Amino acid sequence: MSYARTSEDFRQRDGHGVRHQLRINERSARxxxxxxxxxxxxxxxxxxxxxxxRPGFDRLVAALxxxxxADGQAIQGVVCVAYDRLYRRPEDLARFFAALTSRPxxxxxxxxxxxxxxxxxxxxxxxxxxxxxxxxxxxRSRRVSDWHWARAVEGMPHSGPxxxxxxxxxxxxxxxxxxxxxxxxxxxxxxxxxxxxxREWCDLGVTGTRGGxxxxxxxxxxxxxxxxxxxxANKGELLLLPETGEPVLGLWEPVVTPEQWMAACATFxxxxxxxHRGSAAPRRTSRTTAPSRLASGFLRCGARLxxxxxxxxxxxxxxxxxxxxxxxxxxxxxxRCSISGPLADEALERLLFQDAPPHxxxxxxxxxRWQEGMTNSEKRKTIASxxxxxxxxxxxxxxxxxxHSRVEPVWRDTGPVTPAEQxxxxxxxxxxxxCEAGWKHAEPTGS
Length: 447
Ligand SMILES: [Zn+2]
Known about the structure:
By secondary structure, this protein is an alpha/beta fold. 36% of the residues lie in helices and 11% in strands. α2 (55-66) runs parallel beside α4 (90-100), α6 (175-189) packs across α9 (258-265) and α7 packs across α8. Zinc ion is lined by residues 301, 303, 311, 313, 331, 333-334, 336-337.
């Protein structure tokens, strides 16, 4: 049987790649006296993503295990151009080899020759190709997320449909739509209900950039999006310059000032804000705001996503499950990472006073004041002067001992510590996108 696959980033998905591979397979088979009785293909399918379906591969494995193709032809082996077409993940290697070797005398053929899948040498070669494929996948996904990040930090606008308020170039304001947004922000800060604003837009015959008619939700999204004041969001969070911790400024023309935008955002409850939306965004069930915990806003989710990237969502304080951990910090965007609240707070404290490099480590006086009862807000300022944020690795299931090393610090800039950061006026992390940490939300005045 012949197998061919092209990955999803293959340029045209027109089947050229797959057809060429099948042709090479036919030649390889002929050269070794084999006859191809069935061909299985996955065109434009990734083999490195856990949840990406590969029906061709599944059918191949099923046929190998059964011993026969769907139309009853006996199978003696597999022809493929390279192992990395068949698998890029250990689970798939295991499935493939278990199925291939489920009958004696089976062979594996590639352009380099006919191989014995029962031999130690061939197994080693298969594993080496897996390692190479996995490294390549890691490097590639890192490169893609670096690329997005670098674009974003340079203030490039989001790709995707034209945002309401801007022209097709995504940089120049759309005079009519921008004026509507500006007016809506002012009206909202003045206490107007969003529904009333949406109704006005409808009466004016305004439609969204994809033709929809405005409603309270879309109008809220439009006016609370950070781009409105020139800030750049990335994955539901305000993007900050790593050097300064200040928001990244987009290259596009802003509609209102950051102050006006923040004033408008402050009129909404968290559930309505831009960072709590989108299909993946969790719904806020409770409107009560949890008290600010020590590490709120400093912790980022370190869970791996199915696409190989890192989640990076903010961990938010929530109720814990045990007496030892009466509260916890959990990622609400991927739900793959949570950490005991007291553990995270303790780990942060250790980082601050034991592990911090000298140029950011708090003074002895600060340490003593911390222990003798600083307020939470003072402590948070101290933390902000030491770490930009911390990445929390997901815990190991069933492991109950506290592992402080799960909290990995990203120290503040290595430049000289500014007086503002030393003194009591230490910078608190930017509020946008951080759960309950920074925002003081007024209840909606009706929306
Ligand atoms: Zn996450």
